């Protein structure tokens, strides 16, 4: 008993508080307010660091923001805490696919097969990972197991054919000719086209895919594959034409279109590429006029191009569809204040705050618009509300103090304005705008 008495007691976990924080985090995640969602989930872990579901949510947040390393750390922790959750292993599989870690991907599919033994897709994916890892013979054994369990199928025959083709240096002219003259199965032609592309036989791949296009002119998958071939041939005008054909299809998922456009824009400074992305996004909007994600993407691209009015129109239409995408509220306010639409910005900020009352930057935008609208007293009240919120964003705090200084100057409260400017400069000493405003004030 004395030995037991010396053991530290584990504090009781407040399950009610955990549930409240967890569901608040889920709500913030749905609204794409990722920093606040992460904050809520981390608060849960501070109370219960063995909560697998929270690690999963943190992993998905990081995955959405392309923070793959952080996502991997979190989801591996989740799978170690709960080895029988299918969704945890599925996310880990997606991560390994994304970073090309085929060695680790195969064991993950072993777990997925263990948890869902009747899903033949996991068997195919496991074998495909083996092929990509250069283990063709192991993959063939996997296909044998798959056939024994599920029977033969066209997909299985194609998978084996792929290994056979990849063992070769490519396809002969005669084999390609036979494919084009006799091929009448769209999936088989698509598959052959992808193999030819991988082998560097771009011209042959294009001819095979043109045959596929002749079989089904509306198949967006064919247009996407043709775009890949033209990209390999560096014929970028034709790439855009093929992508526009694909984006004109209602069968192509809106999310897939958004993903392609976002990949085009990642890290680019090319105005030509931005223009092409805008053309694709506009095509997607025509096909999916009620999809808020597509409209938000198009609005973002128009903003990049400097078309603030066009961008604002798209974002306002998003808010007519749903008020639950937090980032769009910020984007609308940013544009309205930039265009001098201060009365409208006041209305927008007040509406946004009725939904998201804990966002300091919304109070900042409201105060900015009020100040520019000649309502300094009201602006100062909103700035005080912004400062009451716990924000770790130094730049935002500096912006709030700098605006507060401007408001106080208008109110002839110069000593208080000095203090506010000093706080802004202390937070961001290299902020040119704050320094220039302060210098103008001192002059």
Classify the helix fraction into a percent range.
over 70%
Mean pLDDT: 89
Q: Which residues sit in consecutive blocks of at least 5 with pLDDT less than 50?
A: 1-12
CATH topology of one domain: Serine Threonine Protein Phosphatase 5, Tetratricopeptide repeat
Task: Give the radius of gyration.
Answer: 28 Å
Specify the number of helices: 26
> How many distinct beta strands?
0
* Strand/helix succession: HHHHHHHHHHHHHHHHHHHHHHHHHH
CATH architecture tag of one domain: Alpha Horseshoe
- What is the CATH level 1 assignment of one domain? Mainly Alpha
* Broad shape: globular
Q: Give the end-to-end Cα distance, rounded to a whole number of Å.
A: 77 Å
Structural class: mainly alpha
Main beta-sheet strand count, sense and barrel state:
none
Topology:
Blueprint: H1 2-5, H2 15-30, H3 34-47, H4 52-64, H5 68-81, H6 86-99, H7 102-115, H8 120-132, H9 136-150, H10 154-167, H11 173-182, H12 186-198, H13 202-215, H14 220-232, H15 236-247, H16 254-265, H17 271-287, H18 292-304, H19 308-321, H20 326-338, H21 342-355, H22 360-372, H23 376-388, H24 394-410, H25 414-427, H26 432-442
